[in-house]
Amino acid sequence: MRRPSFFLSSTIYDFRDLRSAIKYFLEQQGCTVLASEYNDFPKPLDTHSYDACLKALELADYFILLIGSRVGGWYDKINGISITQQEYRFAYQRHLEGKIKIVSLVRADVWRLREDRKELGAFLETLDIDPGAKKAIEIYPRKCATDAAFICNFLSEVCKNKETVAAASDPASPMPTGNWVHIFETFRDVADVIQAQAFSGIPIEHVTLRRLLLRELLEVLRVSLIKFNDDDVFSPEKTVENFYHEHHLALENRDRTHISVQIKYWSILSVLSIHLLGTKYDTLMLQRALESPAFLTYDLPSGAYKEQPVYEALYQLHQEIRLLGLANTNENMSVVFAHRAQTRSSGATTIRIERMRLLGFLHLLDRWVNVIALSRAIAIHLQEQPFSMPKLRPRSPFPGMNAELERERVSSSDVDIFLKGGEK
């Protein structure tokens, strides 16, 4: 797998700790970091270090520019071009070619220096004093900048101020791109910018979890679906629905010891159910997804994290797979072999099946259908589609019994009342 690559560009002396922190942060995210002070930086022995840095830039996907109080070494002292400035210009040309993305960051006190110098310059223009004195005041060294004029001019270059003014006065001229400059005071500020710009605001561990979960769900579907020939992949959902549609399991008949079943529907159901023999699921990623904040969203009004709609589906899938495992027993499957074709009388159109054995078998099939429906819906969502909760098979094969079961089931609101001392 090719990992995203980041080139760190800055003066090294005053950014040593920050560069180290950025390198560690990005490498923990699974990225490659090109920082010239480290031994893993490509350093051809037959190439000057300046040129080696520019050559390494060609390997990078992202160019992280850190602007601080120092100019650093000169790439071209006669023309006043620093090493960092030359790296930026080389990176910007690659940006225009669509080959790299630029993330520019400036220390907060340096940015304030730039704003103060602009205001000071405007104020000095109103004073009737010697031009030489004006210039001396304007370029007077500050504690936060060894060469304030150079750094402020470099910031203007990165912000693309001249290009923006020119484009604003000429509608046919496009506005410059790659001119965002992010102000930072702490490493947390830097990490937030990189996270948002390079990883769409989603932590890499969440991206990895989603990908592994998708692979796991596709494997669940592969194990659950049926293939009759080279082309047809079949889900039991419609067959199970058709069986319920043709056999009205009325609640008032739940005390009967046997239930009459049409052979043509039973035969199809029996053949499909053989697929469940020995079926097992490995759901390590599903369990991790439920324990991870990857599917939680911060809710500003309540000041709390709330579950995304897909989280409920993940929880239900976990439950359905557990229940399917408990129901997939020899006892529940034995009804299929007890009523195979060889045991029926010639010309019969129906068979009588013990009620409890049939209900146990139907419960197994309902869980099977739900596992497929939920896995499909979640897998589609993980491939960047809006989530839609599928229609699921109820807990009981008797339609009227589900409402009764819900009334008897302790709800979340009931638990809240109990915790507040309001139990009945």
In words, what does this structure look like?
- This protein is of the alpha/beta class.
- The protein has two domains: 5-199, 3-Layer(aba) Sandwich (Rossmann fold); 204-393, no CATH class.
- It is 52% helix and 12% strand.
- It contains 17 helices and 13 strands.
- The chain has helices at residues 16-28, 49-57, 83-96, 108-124, 131-138, 148-159, 161-169, 187-199, 204-224, 237-246, 263-273, 284-291, 309-327, 330-338, 355-382, 399-408, 412-419; strands at 5-9, 32-34, 62-67, 74-76, 81-82, 101-107, 181-184, 226-227, 233-234, 258-262, 296-299, 304-307, 350-354.
- The strands form five sheets. Strands 2-1-3-6-7 form a five-stranded parallel β-sheet, with helices on both faces. Strands 4-5 form a two-stranded antiparallel ribbon.
- A hairpin with a 4-residue loop joins strand 11 (296-299) and strand 12 (304-307).
- Helix 2 (49-57) packs parallel to helix 3 (83-96), helix 9 crosses helix 12 (284-291) and helix 10 runs antiparallel to helix 11 (263-273).
- The chain is elongated and about 115 Å long.
- The two termini are 60 Å apart.
- The model has no long low-confidence stretch (mean pLDDT 86).
